[in-house]
């Protein structure tokens, strides 16, 4: 998809990422019973860490030059992890998310993990397909519980 750009965000992009994260958290609010703060925002604590810690990377996803989403990546115990991944609704089911995810995985060779809440069925299906296509094989998730909630953890390798 040559009209798709995944650009590493710089600190000057902080406000843009924070605004996109508001849409992301809003989408999750019906699944997680999240409450908006008194400021009228959900806020995303820790966003500034993506410019102060070397094992964190923030990306803006653009389609045809327009903002389409974001990806936040972190390295935890020598494993790359998709911390947050969001594509605006207008760009969903058009290949944007899958191509952006593959681009991110390709930039960081090594072991990867993608965590998905089981009750988020559309995301679970998306990650199953995207990871299988990237890895060239089906990747079985590991079922686990985090704070009493069912999650699926996908582990795979990127050769870069």
Short description:
InterPro entries: Acyl_CoA_acyltransferase, GNAT_dom. This protein is 29% helix and 35% strand.
Report on this model:
- The two termini are 18 Å apart.
- Strand 2 (56-63) and strand 3 form a beta hairpin.
- This protein is α+β, with helices and mostly antiparallel strands and 160 residues long.
- The chain has helices spanning 14-32, 96-107, 121-135; strands spanning 4-8, 56-63, 66-76, 79-87, 110-117, 142-146, 149-158.
- The chain has a seven-stranded mixed β-sheet with strand order 1-2-3-4-5-7-6, with helices on both faces.
- GO terms for molecular function: acyltransferase activity, transferring groups other than amino-acyl groups.
- This is Putative acetyltransferase.
- InterPro entries: Acyl_CoA_acyltransferase, GNAT_dom.
- Keywords: Transferase.
List keywords for this structure.
single chain, globular, alpha+beta, 160 residues, 7 strands, 29% helix, Aminopeptidase
* CATH architecture descriptor text: 3-Layer(aba) Sandwich
Could you say what the CATH topology is called?
Answer: Aminopeptidase
Global morphology: globular
| Number of structural domains | 1
User: How far apart, in Å, are the first and last alpha carbons?
Assistant: 18 Å
Keywords: Transferase
GO molecular function, one term: acyltransferase activity, transferring groups other than amino-acyl groups
Protein name: Putative acetyltransferase
Pfam family, one: Acetyltransf_1
Chart the SSEs and their pairings.
Layout lengths: L3 E5 L5 H19 L23 E8 L2 E11 L2 E9 L8 H12 L2 E8 L3 H15 L6 E5 L2 E10 L2
Parallel strand pairs: 4-5
Antiparallel strand pairs: 1-2, 2-3, 3-4, 5-7, 6-7
């Amino acid at each position: 998809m040559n009209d798709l750009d995944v650009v590493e965000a710089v600190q000057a992009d902080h406000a843009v990422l924070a605004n996109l994260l508001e849409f992301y958290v809003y989408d999750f609010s019906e699944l997680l019973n999240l409450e908006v703060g008194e400021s009228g925002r959900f806020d995303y604590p820790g966003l500034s860490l993506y410019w102060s810690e070397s094992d964190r990377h923030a990306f803006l996803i653009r389609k045809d030059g327009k903002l389409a989403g974001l990806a936040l990546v972190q390295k935890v115990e020598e494993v790359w992890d998709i911390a947050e991944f969001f594509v605006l609704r207008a760009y969903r089911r058009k290949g944007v998310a899958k191509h952006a995810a593959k681009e991110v995985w390709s930039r960081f060779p090594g072991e990867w993990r993608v965590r998905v809440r089981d009750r988020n069925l559309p995301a679970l299906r998306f990650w199953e397909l995207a990871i299988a296509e990237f890895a060239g094989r089906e990747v079985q998730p590991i079922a686990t519980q985090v704070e009493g909630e069912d999650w699926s953890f996908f582990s795979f390798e990127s050769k870069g």
